[in-house]
Amino acid sequence: MRAPTDFQKPPVPYIKGWKFTAQSHISPPSTPVTRGCCQNKAKGRKERSTLNPVKRCLKHPPLLGKTEPYTTDLEILDLLRVGDGCNAQVFNVNILGTQSLSTGSYFQLAVAKTYDPLYYNKDEGYLNPFLCVDRNYTHEVHAYNLLTEFQGDLVPKYESSRIHRTVRLVLIEYIEGTTMLQAKPGKIPRHERQQIMKSIIDFETRIYKKIDIGLMDLSPQNVIIRPDSLVFIDFEHAVFNHKPDDPIAQKVDILPGQYISPLIRWKKKNHGL
Ligand SMILES: Nc1ncnc2c1ncn2[C@@H]1O[C@H](COP(=O)(O)OP(=O)(O)OP(=O)(O)O)[C@@H](O)[C@H]1O
What we know:
Layout: E1 19-26, H1 42-50, H2 53-59, E2 66-81, E3 89-99, E4 109-115, H3 129-146, E5 158-164, E6 167-173, E7 178-179, H4 190-210, E8 213-214, E9 223-226, E10 229-232, E11 239-240, H5 247-251, H6 262-268
Antiparallel strand pairs: 1-2, 1-5, 2-3, 3-4, 4-6, 5-6, 7-9, 8-11, 9-10
The structure holds adenosine-5'-triphosphate (ATP).
């Protein structure tokens, strides 16, 4: 048996200037979230040590969904988060042209978030990359669909879900600003910092109460600060219907399937903020 690191992977193809065509794709429903649902079982761990990563990707194609015949040509402009080991490959793209029947307005510049299992190796094999990218893609798409009324304001506008070869991606609006993680709190007056925290709790509460989305990854890197507003990104860990899909997890006091005042939920919970 070989160590997984003995296998060579092709270099990450997402580089500045690369042009590619992506096809319209309708995501399958969001995958159920149950305890350990994305963990690698013994079989997966063995396969990771015995099979070349490219062959593994071919063996485990993403969930099917529905591919549509409309294509978009894209060119990578800037890399936002790209590399082997990243959860998703995130970069800015120029939309060169679209062959589409849709009359929706397309923006010229978009963020492409690409769920490529070949470069997903978080937690050194503890998690199964194929189950993770299926979960991440389907949950992100489902969340944006539910968040329609917030798009262009509290969350980026959502353009479409796409497929490039066998890899899934979403195109969303680019938001100019600084993530809360990059911001220097010492340079922001206290009342503004308090207003930021209030806006975060208000948003989380509104979507939890109104459209049944639980944000499991609400953290500083997922809040973009603009001069006069906040924009929230990254919904791949969102859960729906106020509860995980697991009977055991449902008994745990985090998402009991009913509305709870934010005063109570935020008192106990560590959101990493
Ligand atoms: N719409 C956007 N506009 C501007 N920057 C963005 C946008 N989407 C993502 N980014 C940048 O790319 C980074 C990674 O994006 P995102 O959080 O969606 O990816 P991720 O792989 O889920 O990240 P993580 O590993 O933190 O969960 C963000 O922290 C942000 O800096």
